[in-house]
Amino acid sequence: xxxxxxxxxxxxxxxxxxxxxxxxxxxxxxxxxxxxxxxxxxxxxxxxxxxxxxxxxxxxxxxxxxxxxxxx
Length: 72
What we know:
The protein is an all-alpha fold. Helices cover about 90% and strands about 0% of the residues. It has helices at about 1-30, 35-70. The longest helix has about 35 residues, at about 35-70. It is rod-shaped and about 55 Å long. This is Molybdenum ABC transporter permease. Keywords: Membrane, Transmembrane, Transmembrane helix.
């Protein structure tokens, strides 16, 4: 039964990792466009909540994996 927690946690962690990759690609694309400082700052500020959400998702997924392993 606790194997389900491990698999769900792994899926949530992968979703968080994909979110982090999206954030990185978004900022890299903005840097390649040679935007001025204000525009680049606006892009980074718009990506920041998604970045923090992806980190939270990854952390919660890893916590589920640890709980599933310890209880299983």
